[in-house]
């Protein structure tokens, strides 16, 4: 009966052998990496649409973040326009591997993807599997100026605050309540597509929150086009 108490005491004192300790392992997130500079570009989350035209390079890689920071290994499985299976036993855990932190380059094909990463307690994908993470995303390649079928103008009835924004978060005050969903198209100062997506609006409201913290990493002037039921307008946004 003393053995469990002894093990507990050893664990509390930090003397319990590594083989007897159990720490839950999980892949918690993905990061898109510039393989030319080995610097992070942006977090990669499910539903992302990445415009290659807006990337600083076409030489990319994807890193998995784990908890704890060091695990036995991580197995990747990429399907879609490109496919790849990769097992990484040393951090950083990269889909297209690396050499001591120097990331190998991947030039992704345009199209849709699904990526799963699973942590394991031992090297080479051996041992016990932890909590995997799966995301879906796509790469697009859109150049030139975007024109609207029904050209909106800057609507003076719309206001955004704070504007300028220090972190890319805005609240748009609408002239009348909207409900359902609002499609947004985010454009650069010269009209090039930066990002697009949909904001779900569960209940009728005149206050529309927009989170462009990832889409607007650089300071500057942008335009956002909002389209929905009884809504077709455009306004200026400034990221400082």
TrEMBL record:
<keyword id="KW-0732">Signal</keyword>
<protein>
    <submittedName>
        <fullName>T9SS type A sorting domain-containing protein</fullName>
    </submittedName>
</protein>
<dbReference type="InterPro" id="IPR026444">
    <property type="entry name" value="Secre_tail"/>
</dbReference>
<feature type="signal peptide">
    <location>
        <begin position="1"/>
        <end position="20"/>
    </location>
</feature>
